[in-house]
Amino acid sequence: MNGVCPYGWRREYERTPTGRPSNHARPTPAGVARAGADDAAGTTTRAGAAPTVEAVIELQHLTKRYGEKTAVDDLTVTVRPGVVTGFLGPNGAGKSTTMRMVLGLDHPTSGTALVNGKRYAEHRAPLQEVGALLEARATHPGRTARAHLTVLAATAGLPRRRVDEVLELAGITAVADRRVGGFSLGMGQRLGVATALLGDPATVVLDEPVNGLDPDGVLWIRTLARQLAGEGRTVFLSSHLMSEMAVTADHLIVVGRGRLVADMPTAEFIAGAGGESVRVRSPRAAQLTQLLAQDGVRIESSEASVLSVRGLTAPEIGDRAAAAGIALHELTVVRPSLEEAFMSLTRDEREYRTETPQEVAA
Fold this sequence. Notes:
By secondary structure, the chain is α/β, with parallel strands linked by helices. The protein has helices spanning 95-102, 145-156, 161-169, 185-196, 215-230, 242-248, 266-272, 285-292, 314-323, 338-345, 357-361; strands at 2-4, 10-15, 21-23, 57-66, 69-79, 84-88, 110-115, 130-133, 203-207, 234-238, 251-256, 259-265, 277-281, 298-303, 306-310, 330-334.
């Protein structure tokens, strides 16, 4: 069944292997076209349109000033499809301002923010190009969830059945006919995500999507983000919940005081923080300490039988203990968490700062 779009082309919907609705107008990791049929060169066009471009968010020297305050400072990054890209930064780092400029809600002082090759306002059907959740409460409290989505669908020329599909996707079908003003924070977040996905967009921008969600909702967002990226979409999301971002984001863009601090894979970001140690448990911890002590090796102990060793690898420790006949009950590599890596990297980039006990001790 086809949904007729008022912008002069038809948008086809189908079910993906994951069971969620999808359209043909999207790049997949294999390079599937976003509209129409593939031509011999592997590119596609809508009727009368230029060949489609890869669904990416491109920020070029993006700057935003409010008087003497610089919220975003010469930011240049590219957010690509097929991976979940996390957007991190301390409070006041410019994350929300950046997202607002991507969506045309704020105008840059200089530089450009492009989505799928164009400024957001230049897209003929923006809801079908990029879906966004910036403020879950940006709905009329007197409307029901179904009415809210129905109005948006009608405005964008989407089939009415798409409303039922996103209500089901967000898990709020049972409350679809309740007024939004009576929704909890978590229900409002789910409606916000449903709104972002209404146009089945190639690019999805979510600002703090897990805010107010219970554990089931947090798991849902994580799974959904990875499914969307797996379908070849560009997924760009921010969160202050580092433990969740560590298991959701494949790539990280980190900003501080409006400037780019890091743009790299999540694993590389965490590894770059350093601080790897080896946790060793042994009934002969005192003898093991003497055995391992040498230049460049740092050994700490929080318990009588437990050592934290830096400067030696786990195999090196195991080999030396075995040669000396010292039994080991535990030998575990301890790597810094994303939270620790983030706090270390942004220590001097925080606008609002309170010292942690570790920082005070250092």
